[in-house]
Specification:
Layout (H helix, E strand, L loop, with lengths): L9 E2 L9 H17 L7 E5 L2 E5 L1 H5 L3 H8 L8 E3 L6 H13 L4 E2 L4 H10 L11 H13 L3 H10 L6 H4 L2 H18 L8 H6 L4 H13 L4 H15 L1 H5 L6 H4 L4 H16 L10 H14 L3 H13 L6 H8 L11 H20 L10 H17 L7 H8 L11 H13 L5 H8 L9 H8 L6 H17 L9 H38 L2 H9 L5 H11 L32
Parallel strand pairs: 1-5, 2-4
Antiparallel strand pairs: 2-3
Helix pairs in contact: 1-4, 4-5, 5-6, 7-9, 9-11, 15-16, 16-17, 16-18, 17-19, 18-20, 20-22, 24-25
Length: 586
């Protein structure tokens, strides 16, 4: 034999540039043929691996592979000339390296192929139990001495195991890589060894979501901080769902809105897996990132549990959410139309229910006092309504459904919601009076500032009733002579407005009756002549009041004194008490 049975294997940490599978297979077969024919011994077995065939020598293979030895011994053929090894891990390329090892030909072991070589060695039973310094032992040395001591090397080995399951798991290659990666990632998160400090998150982003989840779970068990886990998840999401999560401007809409159902199915499964890995600490993620995940979940039709989890996380920190964050959830990727606003409604509703529970727990009255978080959230919701009010497809029920989620006590003034109402009325000019009143029902005209009341009094888009309320409030202020800060609260003012409205209605009825009486008297005067008036005056009979007056005059104890009033003419004195009228305008 011209070559030793113990090949010189070159350890290399990085792989050479990759080529396509077909050219790589042809080059492998060409090289295999060269070193096989150089043995000057005719080949006696043909090994098939997929579409590739290798003409080799039985005695060279049997010397290292117990699997091939068994196949030859157990064969029913007298002289086995063809062996099928299509199931070997790694395919033809890895078998070529295993065959070279049997022939003592040099080849390179790298972090990219060491896992496949280790699995192939197990498949071919090329272990040290069968032969000293066999392929299994050489690959184990490379794993422990070269690949696993570094985070980058362990990640690459773990990535290569994706196509080697379940054998790679049975050999514990996956678990060893996961342990190394999670341990070193936790160290790098606390004590970065290079710049940028989160470089390790970029390394993890090349993994399949299954292996990535194993690493994250292992990091959690090692006590990694929530912000460390969040950093890895954010980077992984932006890498794996780039068009759905990272692009916020709508430039990725053409790629995101794809008709490829298989792609969308993979993206949906990936997104659901990422959401399942989120740590329980709800404040560990940027709000905008959560909103982008929720928009992607809505677009991809993710499971209800996935969407509800994201909605709860956003709802828990709604006081920190901006209008732009809510708009991310509300619009499609091209920004041309609205999504279903049910998610936004559930987010706001969940926050309000939480604040109510906190108020009740603190023995407070939620209707009278609102927390700072509630006030901030109310301003955000009102500003958000102003942004979506311009879209024609937004119905009154959806607009009002979001507006009424904010308690009235959470708005010190209704200027922001008035602005949203005005924008909605301007964007929907075909609404009738009743529909406009429905839109305006979400605001309280008595809680508008002076500037807003002035604007409302001149706003032709508002219903007449709203304008009258705003004007009446100013009239009350002028009547009382007080400033805005000294005015009674809205409830007292509303009650006074109702009472005064009732009085005004009564006065109007009295004035109407008086006008009718005057008209009736005028008609009588026209129908009766002057003679009738004279006859009536001369033949006037004593009235009941004049007769009673004379009778009482006789009983006057001062009739003989200086205060005698019995000689006064009853016709010259009006002793009837004037009738009091409330706010009579007659």
């Amino acid at each position: 034999m011209r070559r030793s049975h113990f090949p010189e294997v070159v350890f290399q940490n990085m792989a050479s540039p990759l080529v396509n599978n077909s050219s790589r297979l042809s080059l492998a077969m060409e090289r295999t043929g060269q070193w096989v024919f150089s043995q000057e011994i005719p080949t006696d077995v043909l090994v098939e691996v997929g579409k590739a065939t290798f003409s080799l020598h039985k005695f060279m293979l049997v010397a290292k592979s117990n699997c091939i030895r068994k196949l030859i011994l157990e064969s029913k053929e007298a002289d086995l000339t063809r062996i099928d090894l299509s199931d070997i891990p790694g395919g033809p390329e890895i078998f070529e390296k295993a065959a070279k090892f049997c022939y003592g030909v040099n080849f390179e072991i790298t972090v990219h192929n060491v896992a496949a070589l280790r699995c192939a060695a197990e498949y071919l039973q090329m272990t040290d139990k069968y032969c000293d310094n066999n392929l299994a032992g050489r690959t184990e040395d490379f794993l422990s001495q070269v690949a696993l001591p570094s985070l980058s090397g362990a990640v690459v080995v773990l990535k290569s195991c994706e196509d080697l399951l379940p054998l790679a798991e049975d050999l514990r290659i996956v678990q060893r890589c996961v342990d190394v990666v999670s341990s070193k990632a936790c160290v790098e998160a606390n004590f970065p060894s290079r710049s940028p400090p989160n470089w390790w998150t970029e390394e993890l982003s090349i993994l399949d979501v299954k292996f990535f989840g194993k690493v994250i779970t292992s990091m959690k068990s090692r006590g990694a901080k929530a912000f460390t886990i969040a950093s890895a998840l954010i980077t992984y999401s932006e890498k794996s769902l780039r068009d759905l999560v990272r692009d916020h401007s709508g430039n990725g809409a053409r790629t995101a809105v794809s008709d490829d159902s298989d792609l969308r199915t993979r993206q949906r499964e990936l997104l659901e897996s990422i959401v399942a890995l989120l740590p329980p600490e709800k404040s560990s993620f940027p709000i905008n990132f959560l909103c982008c995940l929720l928009r992607a979940a809505i677009f991809l039709g993710a499971a209800s549990a996935c969407k509800i989890e994201l909605e709860k996380r956003i709802s828990a920190i709604l006081e920190h959410v901006t209008v732009d964050d809510l708009l991310v959830v509300s619009f499609t990727y091209d920004g041309e139309r609205l999504f279903d606003l049910e998610s936004v409604r559930r987010i706001i509703s969940g926050f309000m229910e939480k604040e109510k529970s906190v108020a009740v727990f603190n023995a407070g009255d939620f209707r009278e006092v609102s927390s700072t978080a509630m006030l901030r959230a109310a301003k955000t919701v009102d500003a958000y309504l102003g942004e979506i009010a311009t879209f024609s497809e937004l119905s009154i029920s959806k607009f009002n459904g979001i507006a009424i989620l904010v308690p009235k006590a959470a708005r010190k003034v209704d200027d922001d919601v008035y602005r949203a109402v005005d924008i909605y009325l301007k964007a929907h000019p075909n609404l009738d009076e009743i529909e406009r009143e429905k839109v305006c029902s979400v605001m309280d005209p008595l809680k508008l500032s002076y500037e807003a009341r002035v604007h409302a009094s001149q706003n032709k888009r508002l219903p007449v009733q709203i304008v009258l309320h705003a004007l009446y409030y100013d009239q009350l202020k002028l009547r009382s002579g007080t400033e805005d800060q000294k005015m009674p609260n809205a409830i007292t003012t509303r009650r006074q407005l109702q009472a005064d409205t009732s009085l005004a209605r009564e006065n109007e009825e009295l004035r109407t009756e008086l006008l009718k009486m005057k008209m009736y008297i005028a008609d009588l005067q026209k129908t009766q002549g002057p003679s009738t008036k004279a006859t009536a005056a001369s033949s006037r009979r004593p009235t009941f009041f004049s007769s009673m007056s004379k009778t009482l005059g006789k009983l006057n104890p001062f009739k003989h004194g200086s205060k005698d009033t019995s000689n006064l003419d009853d016709a010259l004195v009006d002793i009837s008490k004037p009738r009091r009228r409330r706010f009579s305008i007659s």
